[in-house]
TrEMBL record:
This is cystathionine gamma-lyase. Pathway: Amino-acid biosynthesis; L-cysteine biosynthesis; L-cysteine from L-homocysteine and L-serine: step 2/2. One of its GO terms (cellular component) is cytoplasm. PANTHER family: CYSTATHIONINE GAMMA-LYASE, TRANS-SULFURATION ENZYME FAMILY MEMBER. InterPro entries: Cys/Met-Metab_PyrdxlP-dep_enz (IPR000277), PyrdxlP-dep_Trfase (IPR015424), PyrdxlP-dep_Trfase_major (IPR015421), PyrdxlP-dep_Trfase_small (IPR015422).
């Protein structure tokens, strides 16, 4: 069986920024309010048995604010449909729950720690097996079996910023009737639209760039297939892992400035990336906006204007102790998990976001103990660059002189 990639939604008649501001934000017909109200009602009146006043019956099934947010994400990802969930992890779980027992999934090796945890510890409980591969475009056909139903891609990957040619993977997968899911969290819909490159589903941790203000935990999936909409919306309702009306409203508000924030974060990460690359205290820099990135050609093909996004990682001289010390010495970058907010963050993946992945598996895909991940926010680029350079200098020097410290943070 082959899969014909469903036609993308009709070409937008307006630019990204216009869609971000206006999609799903109809003026209130009774008051003229330009921003939709927050609908906290859990249930909706019916004029007769089985005949609701409007399109809503019960907020787990559908809510005005959630619907507004879903409409906006669909518009930004050039999709026909979008479904919002209580977290990015819940989005992953619902998609995996849609597979029958005995199904096989192929995934890139360097995925978010929470995704790896679900694939290895939860999916197998309902009979879904996952095969991890570091070079998915090269060897996808070798891993396909009659039971393979799904291919899972992160591009860029977390935290090594490796890129995957979405079209190449989709072409190979669709020849065998296999769906392709792309986690687009690291770039956001502004920089990359995976459905346009042949993917069947695009997912996001809305917590990150789409909301962008570090005050909402949410997830979303977008796609074009009517069959997928029926299957996933049924599970969304049946499992009930849905966001609140208030969180949906906040995320919708946050996404209105996504294009502005994504551009500024890219500008800042590019400046920081160049500074890191020039530093004698750095072993290697992973940033798809740099010409030195091994997959720079893919970035130019798949990313808006070849943008690199706001995420980067680097290996620091001095090992794990220097990596920890760096994160304690930054003055603007905050030592914290997560990413994609207006504020800049730093973390050590081996001890934090990816602590649950065995050391040998981590290092096989480049997640070494000396790796530091940065999420560049929207502060001034010069300030961020200077902050990184002063922390680098002190961390490497102090570690070499015997200073050490532990942040005591565990992985989530």
């Amino acid at each position: 069986m082959t899969i014909t990639t469903p036609p993308r939604a009709s070409s937008p008649s307006s630019g990204f920024g216009t869609r971000a501001v206006h999609a799903g934000s109809e003026h209130d017909p009774s008051t003229g309010a330009v921003i939709p109200a927050i609908s906290l009602s859990t249930t909706f009146a019916q004029t007769a048995v089985g005949q609701p006043v409007g399109e809503y019956e019960y907020s787990r099934s559908s809510n005005p604010n959630r619907k507004n947010f879903e409409d906006m994400v669909a518009a930004l990802e050039n999709a026909k449909h979008a479904l919002a969930f209580s977290s990015g992890s819940a989005t992953t779980a619902v998609i995996l729950q849609s597979l029958a027992s005995g199904s096989h999934v192929i995934s890139v090796s360097d995925v978010y720690g929470g995704t790896h945890r679900y694939f290895t510890q939860v999916a197998k409980a309902h009979g879904v097996k996952v095969t991890f591969t570091p070079e998915i475009e090269v060897d996808i056909r070798e891993h396909i079996t009659p039971a393979t139903k799904l291919v899972w891609i992160e591009t860029p990957s977390n935290p090594t910023l490796r890129l995957v040619d979405i079209r190449a993977v989709a072409t190979a997968a669709h020849e065998h009737g296999i769906m392709v899911v792309v986690d687009n969290t690291f770039l956001s819909p502004y920089i990359q639209n995976p459905l346009d490159h042949g993917a069947d589903i695009v997912v996001h941790s809305v917590t990150k760039y789409i909301n962008g203000h570090s005050d909402v935990v949410m997830g979303v999936a977008a796609f074009n297939s009517e069959e997928l909409f029926k299957r996933l919306s049924f599970l969304q309702n049946a499992i009930g892992a849905i966001p609140s009306a208030f969180d949906s409203w906040l995320a919708h508000r946050g996404a209105k400035t996504l294009h502005l924030r994504a551009r500024e974060a890219t500008t800042n990460a590019t400046a920081v990336g160049h500074a890191l690359e020039a530093s004698p205290h750095v072993i290697a820099v992973n940033y798809p906006g740099l010409d030195s990135h091994p997959h720079r050609a893919i970035a130019k093909k798949q990313h808006r204007n070849g943008m690199g996004g706001g995420m980067l990682s680097f290996r620091i001289r001095g090992g794990h102790a220097a990596a920890e010390r760096f994160c304690q010495l930054t003055r603007i970058f905050t030592l914290a998990e997560s990413l994609g907010g207006v504020e800049s963050l730093c973390e050590v993946p081996s001890s934090m976001t990816h602590a649950g992945i065995p050391k040998e598996q981590r290092e096989a895909v480049g997640v070494f103990d000396d790796l530091v991940r940065l999420s560049c926010g929207v502060e001034d680029a010069e300030d961020l660059k200077n902050d990184v350079l002063q922390a680098l200098e002190r961390a490497v020097t102090e570690t070499a002189n015997g200073a050490n410290g532990s942040n005591g943070v565990n992985g989530h």
